[in-house]
Amino acid sequence: MQRACAKIEGQREKEHYTDRAQTKGVKTLLGDPKKAIIKLSIPMIAAMSAHTIYNLTDAIWVSGKGPESLSAVGFTFPFLFLAMAIANGIGIGGGAAISRRIGARDKKGADSIAAHTIVIMLVFVVLFTLAMLLLAESMIRIMGAGAALDLSVRYARIMFSGTIFIFFMQIAIAILRSEGDAKRAMYAMVSGAVLNIILDPIFIYSLGLGVAGAALATILSMFVVSLVTFYWLFIERKTYVSFRFKGFRFDKNALVDIAKVGFPASVSQMSMSLMAFVLTTIVASVGGPDGVAVYTTGWRLISLAILPMLGVASAVTSVTGAAFGAQDYKKVEMSYMYALKAGVLVESVLALVTLIFAGQITSIFTWSEESARIINDLTLFLRVLWLLLPTVAFGMLSSAMFQGAGKGLNALIMTLVRTLVFTVPFAWFLGVFLDWGLLGVWIGMVAAGLAYIPIAFGWATWYIRKLRKREGANQQFNSKTP
């Protein structure tokens, strides 16, 4: 009896401490799921919009140096995507674990997860930087860079020298999102994008550095953002989580909690990097360097339309993670279904805009004489790929829900099916085997997205129904227990 009373009192103290430590973001995270999705999504959509606008602006400035410079960025893209995959995987794994700890009212556990996430990041930074600096040239040559090899290698080496900033920026933003602090995550991303937009023309044209200047502008911008987020997390310390590294030791439970979502998330995004690598190789084989320029530039435009789903997905992971930690499975279902309906609607509207204004959009990225030769192929890309946009919500939000629930392997399997079972084979079959060229590759990508919908939506809803049945059984048992 005495032990039971002590346990109850300890739980009350824990809850009292946690409630006192709650920030505005944490209160949002634990409140109404629909409102939480909106409040967390909008700042992240704004932030990702700014980041994507930077990417497009970067493409516009680089395109002025001709298709070879665009190809240099394109051939480096899969490796940069790999860096982002690892960083985002660590951030998603750590962030989802922090959200679940918040939902369970376990601040000490959340602090431990945050510290482990930073240490894991540092280990991977060292490994990735060394590997890429040594192997980038060989890999780019294998991809068939040809005349664009020197420019590609120069761009790649500058980017990989700043890997620490790429990683830290992603991890810091993920930690802020995990505790519902979407506004500061937005401020960080927007400031970095704006600075990059300002520096691009200066480094590329005023200083005459060309595509290498674009890489330097990107790394410098990420460095500034890293300084700002470092101040928020480690010096100002007004976040919910606290970092304690004195006497740090790896904790098995914390590592497992991060890894069970983070590792699959990294592998999942690596599969997308592998898909980008293979698709770039397929495109190069049927369309040459100009085809790669079309694919790279066109995909940046599609990414602009996809970015609302990135913002919503980040909110779904945090909200469902907190709901799962609190064992409130009805909130998991509400969050997922609300986000999915909104996502499909938004992406359908953006798809129509892309189709209707494909020619006008293309003209923005083919303004120089050197780039004018790809205008028809780029317009064709947009007039095919618009069909892909409404399909994105199903896969992205289903994966986000699984990650929030700690089912990283489910999210990984879904991504592997989409990227390696559907997208790559469909693109190769239509583009290379049937010899339909670039048009076949684009149609293959769309067909893969459509074929994937029943798998993503069916699995996610089945899992949620399973959770609700478990919740109902527990409530029924508790009602019968005296």
List the helices and strands and how they pair.
Layout: H1 2-21, H2 24-29, H3 33-63, H4 67-103, H5 107-142, H6 149-161, H7 163-178, H8 182-206, H9 211-236, H10 252-325, H11 329-356, H12 358-364, H13 375-385, H14 389-404, H15 408-433, H16 437-480
Helix pairs in contact: 3-8, 3-10, 4-5, 4-6, 4-7, 4-10, 5-6, 5-7, 5-10, 6-9, 7-8, 7-9, 8-9, 10-11, 10-13, 10-14, 10-15, 11-14, 11-16, 12-13, 13-16, 14-15, 14-16, 15-16
What do you see in this structure?
Mean pLDDT is 83; it is low at 1-20. The chain has one domain (31-477). The protein has 16 helices and no strands. It is mainly α and 482 residues long. Helix 6 (149-161) packs parallel to helix 9 (211-236) and helix 13 packs parallel to helix 16 (437-480).
Q: What share of the residues does DSSP label as strand, in percent?
A: under 5%
Distance between the termini: 18 Å
Order of helices and strands: HHHHHHHHHHHHHHHH
Mean pLDDT: 83
Task: Give the beta-strand count.
Answer: 0
Provide a count of the helices: 16
